[in-house]
What does this fold into?
Amino acid sequence: MGRDIQAIKISGEDRRNYRDKLRRSLDVFARMLRERLFDEHPSTVGQEIELNLVDDRGMPSMRNDDVLKVIADPAWATEVGQFNLEINVPHRHLDGDALATLEAELRADLNAADAKAQSVGSHLVMVGILPTLSEADVHEGTMSANERYKVLNEQIFAARGEDMRIAIDGPEQLLTHADSITPESACTSVQLHTQVSPDAFAAYWNAAQAIAGVQVALAANSPFLFGRQLWHETRITLFEQATDTRPDELKEQGVRPRVWFGERWITSVFDLFEENIRYFPALLPICEDEDPLAVLDRGGCPQLAEMSLHNGTIYRWNRPVYAVADGIPHLRVENRVLPAGPTIADTVANAAFYYGLVRSLTEAQRPIWTQMSFTTAAENLHEAARHGLDAQLYWPGVGDTPVTELILRRLLPLAREGLDHWGVNQVDADRLLGIIEQRCLTGQTGAAWQIATVAEITRHSGVDRHAALRQMTQRYIEHMHTNEPVHTWPTAI
It folds into this structure.
């Protein structure tokens, strides 16, 4: 979905041609899998990190175009809102000191970008939802200038036929309506990519689905939206609602949402791409000139652009990715459940936990996904999003259990074992997983810190919610720049 597109008018013939091209692409993809044309021994990982822009007062800064110009680096790109940016981190082999190097490079890149952003009156913030964001900040006029967002917005609302209803309950409640997809821009995340062989793909995807709830509980960092305290990771339910193409009647009929956990464990990556085409009408039916079958018959590697574009408009929490690098096709699992922030140290620790745990689970003698229902994995995700580290999650062998006990007693040892199998330095693994351990022992995620700090500011100074959120955000930014993990952040005034 990352490529640029131009403004278009879509006809019925466009949709028919696109559907035919998708089906041909899927047939070619199936043949490529049968003929084992993919990289069989991949071992690389990569990341995408979305960020917010704020001004000196901690309020949203609608200047991503200006900031991109001064950063002047192709690794950086826009996101939906004018207060969003994204950095794409190059793939690397996960061994030796790769995680320590990643942390150092990310800090250097983000510090350099922040210094340039300050020259145009903005600052970078890594947080799941910007606490100072208001409803007035998310409308069609604050959408990024890139034409693809405008076209996507038009197509989603053409499919819905009515405004978007966003309803979220929690300690407080939110009910609002939107006439554009810009509420989605409130959701800023970290996406973890793992390149895997076709034979290993199903195991990695299933494992990632099984631990999605654990990841969210551990990393929750989005408790406030439009001034209200909602879920610990409000971003999960907001994203599900803000890109929903279904009016209520289609929801009642059981039509699947485009932000989708899925409905079953898989046996092949083909299952996911086939579901995409079977269940979801195209939002951006744009055909390229490539004939994928002709390219394959000539011994070339087809781009399968239509299949990839369609896949990019279906927002699975763990998404399959087909890509071509140096003329060789490969597959990736894109893990999309994590919020951004609070620090680079926390972000890399979350990544280490994920990469290690998913590796162990895929190599286990008895796969975890054979011991729990798919529905339970989905329920774990929403329970974790609501309650963070206070969540009770189901896990085979222990039943419903506090997520902190599950992580400390069962999953941290598995993550450490998995990092060892990747070949990660033990010192780096121990340091990063130590951050995860301390977060569990203290119970302080980014979300917990935000909630406690707003409460303390309000109690101490008596200011209203708006002022408390602004002051908290400014303190958050100060702590973020220290790179001290969030479990060490003080909440006292």
In short: The chain is about 45% helix and 15% strand. The longest strand covers residues 328-339. Residues 1-5 have pLDDT under 50 and may be disordered. The radius of gyration is 22 Å.
